[in-house]
Amino acid sequence: MKDLHVHSNYSDGSFLRRMVRAADETPLEGIGIADHCNVAERGSAAAMRNLHGFNLDLTYERRREAIERVRETASIPVYDAVEMDYDPRDEAAIEAFLAEADFDYSLGSVHAVAGKNVQVPSLFDELSAEELNAVVDEYFETLVSLIESELFDIAAHVDLIERTPPLRGRATTDHYRRVARAFANSRTIPELNAGRALTDAEIVHPAPEFSRTLREFDVPITVGTDSHRPAEIGDRVSFLDTFAAEHELELVEPASLRE
Predict the structure, then answer these.
(1) Before 208, cis peptide (omega within 30)?
(2) 87 touches 41 (CB < 8 A)
(3) Cα–Cα distance, 125 to 120 (Å, whole number)
(4) How far apart are CA 243 and CA 124, in angstroms?
(5) What angle do CA 27, 29, 33 make, to 5 degrees?
(6) Position 44 confidence tier, pLDDT thresholds 50, 70, 90
(7) What's the angle, vertex CA 175, arms to CA 171 and CA 176, rounded to 5?
(8) Do residues 14 and 63 touch, judged by C-beta distance below 8 A?
């Protein structure tokens, strides 16, 4: 198993060398450093990007040099990747940057809709049921656009809204089937994500019904621990290994790593 979704100090994770060293101590056969990036130039998006330090478009060459250094002592392959915030309005800028940077592979993520980060519950506490359902509709609409853009190798945590109590449980079978059809016709593949699997919420992405729908459409799946700290990697790898075996999931790599 290769963990293709790990963060480092080039976004919101721990020191790169420590993350790779922790992965080296597991049965993993590869580790992918996929730091956050956002290339939007709109005022609010740019302000949030700078606040959180999601500026890999400015630092990827420096990080690439660091990855080359840690590869010298790592016993497993270390991949140079990116987790890119996706908004349909930014497709041209995203495409240009990915072509310039030439990462080993890329993840695309929908973190915000209607200017609101879907992981911040307080942003949705005062909304009506109808308004919350509209947010969920827009989330999946944007996710389908991400898949159909063909910009990314992997779509990260494809039901991220499940992390947020006001939005949790509002996705429907129709949402899942539409996304599954998009994946079935795309090079982009979803990931089995353990970012919240070992918390009290015990959330695994994709959710069980979503996962069954993806299998119905013969959509392959890859894997990512979504780790930000060295201590998270080992436990999440063990969890994913057991989870994949129990659910008879066949994990694959993106085509860019198989070439």
Answers:
(1) no
(2) no
(3) 10
(4) 31
(5) 110
(6) low
(7) 95
(8) no
- Taking the C-alpha atoms of residue 178 and residue 187, their distance in angstroms, rounded to an integer, is 16
Checking if the pLDDT of 136 tops 90, the result is yes
State phi, psi for 172 to the nearest 5 degrees: -115, 170
How much is the pLDDT for 46?
Answer: 67
| Cα separation, 26 vs 238, whole angstroms | 9
Q: State which amino acid sits at residue 253.
A: E
Residues 6+ apart with CB under 8 A from 210: 158, 159, 171, 176, 179
Two structure tokens written together for 230: 């060295």
The tokens 């909304």 sit on which residue?
Answer: 127
The residue whose two tokens read 């949790």 is: 168
CA-closest candidate to residue 52, choices 207, 195, 228: 228
The pLDDT > 90 percentage for the chain reads: 90
- Please spell the DSSP secondary structure of 45-58, one letter per residue: HHHHHHHHT-BHHH
**What is the per-residue pLDDT for 113?**
92
Residue 259 has pLDDT above 70, yes or no: no
Query: Cβ-count burial of 72 within 10 angstroms (0-12 exposed, 13-18 middle, 19+ buried)?
Result: exposed
Contacts of 119 (CB under 8 A, 6+ apart): 111, 160, 163, 164
Going from the C-alpha of 100 to that of each of 39, 57, 62, the distances in angstroms are 13, 10, 14
| Total residue length of the chain | 259
Residue type, 195: G
pTM of the model: 0.95
Distances (CA, A) of 74 to 24, 104, 170, 185, 251: 7, 17, 43, 36, 23
Instruction: State both tokens at 85.
Output: 């915030």
pLDDT over 70 at 10, yes or no: yes
